Amino acid sequence: MSDTGRFSRSLELFERAAKVIPGGIYGSKAPGFLVPGSYPYYIESAKGCRMRDADGNEFIDYLCGYGSQIVGYGNERVDGPACERASRGDLLDQPAPVMVELAERIVGAVEGSSWAVFMKNGTDATTLAYSLARVRTEKPIAIMASGAYHGAANWCGANPFAALAADSAGVLTFRYNDLPGLERLFAEKRGRIACLFLTPYHHPTFRPQEMPDPALYETARRLCDSEGALLVMDDIRGNFRLHPRGSHVRFGAKPDLWCMGKAMANGYPISALLGGAETRGTANSFFITGTYWMSAVPMVAAMATMDEMERLGGVPRLESLGLLLKEGLESEGRAAGFGARVSGPPAIPFLTFDEDPDLYLNQRFGAAMARRGVFMHPHHNWFISLAHGEADIAQTVDRAREAFAAMASGAE
Amino acid sequence: MEKNLDRLSKADAATLARIRLATTVRLVALAAEAEPELRAKAYARPFSLILSAPGIPSAGICSRRGTIRSWAGGAKAPEGALPPSLVLRFTSPRAAALTLGGGGGAPFPLPLGPGALSALSFFRTAAACVPAMFRDPATEVALKARLLAEAALRGLAEVAASDDSLAERLAHVPDGTVALEATGAFSIGISKSGRRIELLKAALVSPNARLAFRDAASAVAVFSGSRPAVVALGAGEVAIGGLLPLVQGLFAVLDRLGEYMAVGSGEAAR
Question: pTM for this structure?
Answer without folding.
Answer: 0.92
